[in-house]
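In this section we walk through a basic example: taking a raw amino acid sequence and producing a predicted 3D structure, encoded as discrete structure tokens. The instruction is simple. Fold the sequence below.
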Amino acid sequence: LNGVAVIPSQVNTTFVSSTNPGVTLSGTNVVVAPGTPVGNYILTYQICEVLNPANCDTAIVTVPVTAAAIDAVNDTIASTNGTNGNPNAGNVLTSNGNGPDTLNGAPATTSQVTISIVTPATPVSPGAPVPSVDPVTGQISIPANTPAGNYTITYQICEILNPTNCDTAVVTVPVSAATIVAND
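The resulting token sequence is shown next.
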């Protein structure tokens, strides 16, 4: 104002417009609402002199919004007897020894991320059952009569709000053989 840095009490600051409704102004603070997608947004504001209210000028603020940190963590499931199987061996999103998958530092949920299978488990023989991950729930399942072996499944989680914000991890599923006891 008058060639000198503005003293807040000498001007009124008002919001004019924004290229995204999630980017607004509260007083003189730029506010980015939760759920605002990744992008570079423009916020236009106006300052008017308190002493001469018709003396105004507008300016813009470029507001870069970045994606939340996403981290798919490798999982190791407890060994399961392959003869019995286990339809509820664990969940890729929860802690399976190495911590949970996270979005923005908090445990990820199916309401925030999608799960896709990048590489399914490989059967030890053609047509044999293998452990799997349900891409809707993240549930790990080991079918009954799965041959013994160490199976790996590569999966990916992607943020629903920003679908290109993704990370991959591997779940290791050890399947053991049934105990055999030969009696005389």
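Looking at the output, two observations stand out. The mean pLDDT is 94. The longest strand covers residues 39-49. In the next section we compare this with other chains.
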